Every structure is written in C-alpha cells, then in structure tokens.
Amino acid sequence: NAGVTQTPKFRVLKTGQSMTLLCAQDMNHEYMYWYRQDPGMGLRLIHYSVGEGTTAKGEVPDGYNVSRLKKQNFLLGLESAAPSQTSVYFCASSPDRIMDEQFFGPGTRLTVL
Amino acid sequence: GNSVTQMEGPVTLSEEAFLTINCTYTATGYPSLFWYVQYPGEGLQLLLKATKADDKGSNKGFEATYRKETTSFHLEKGSVQVSDSAVYFCALSRRGSQGNLIFGKGTKLSVKP
After folding, report:
1. B69-92: pLDDT as tens digits
2. If you average pLDDT over every residue of chain B, what do you get?
3. Residue B13 C-alpha, separation from nearest chain A C-alpha, in angstroms
4. FRET pair for B109, CA 20 to 30 Å: which of B8, B9, B68, B79?
5. Chain B interface residues (partner A, CB cutoff 8 A)
C-alpha cells in the first residue's frame, strides 16, 4: 500500500495563478483532510471531507476550494494564488471520526511569488 | 475553545539524555490526546495516543500520560538517540468534532552525538 500520496511535491506560482493539489489514499478511509503548515503555527485545518461527495470548512478555508468526487481522492484548489498561501500543504486521511489516527502524506511545498 | 500549548523549542540534547516536552490543553468534554512526530522532509506520523484520563501511551521508548487534573500530556523518553531528532506535535481530538485534530505549534528536538 502506498498510503497517502500527494502531487506535486513542489510548486512555484506567480500571484494570481491557479493550481490544484491532488491527494490520494488507498486505505479506503472515509475521512480526508487538508492542512497547511507554517513556521511557528503548527498545522491548521483548511477543509475536510467526511465521505465521498462531501466537504466542509476548517479553520482557515478562505482562498481555497476542495472536491471529493471519488472516495480515494481529495483535491485542493487555489483559484487565484496569493503570497500568503506560501506554505507546506499536508493531506491526511482516517478511517472514521472517532479519535482515530490520521495518516499523513509527505506534503507539497508551495511558493507564491 | 479548544487549544493545545506546548513548550517552545528548539530543544538540544546530548545522546542518552532524558527528554521532556511539555504539553497542556484546553478542551470541553473529554478529548483524546496524541503526539505526532515529523522527521525532516516527511509528513507527520503518529507516535502515541491516549483516549481517556490516566491512560499512558507509549511507543519507541516514548511515553505520555493523560492527566485530566492538570490538563497535561507531557512527552518523555529516558534516553534519546540522534535518530530522535525531529519536530514533535501535541494534538487533541474532541469527540464529535468530525475527527478534527487541534495541533500545538510543534517542538523541534535536536540530539547531538
């Protein structure tokens, strides 16, 4: 099993450009999450999904959109990138919401110039 | 609201030294508590967890005890190794919170030979 994979690993964007980050998991997990990690801030939840076809806002959702068309995939979109979105993005999944372990991907380092 | 506070780093220790990383939390109800570890260039992985008061989580020589009276979940290891160098995150998950994790800001540990 590959676990949780993220594509791409690195990306540099110019202000105003758009992009989509892809997260895929092969563990048949129901729950999936997108976090951003900034220095001195820990991880903050952007959006999450409790199952195929569902999405919900987390702590810092502004400027991002998500979709969960297939159970195994969770996409994070930036429609018009801003320098404040420079960060490391982590995707995670878990079997259910009852205090289970979350499994993290390796991360995507995004720089917006 | 729910929050996690952990000691600021970085923490630098010599090999075989004793490690303590403090973590305290604020939460309504009875959260589950976690320690995650992030090795350089990788995603987070679960180190240990505890789901109720007085539980002790342990893994790879690390331990943490869920102390409800002091709202703490301090991480300890009796003898650290160079390979333990990483960033450690304390986190909580509240029952009914859709499995969302609230993370502390992380503590960077460097172990010198």
Report:
1. 999 999 999 999 999 999 999 999
2. 92
3. 21
4. B68
5. 32, 34, 41-46, 49, 51, 89, 93, 95-101, 103-106
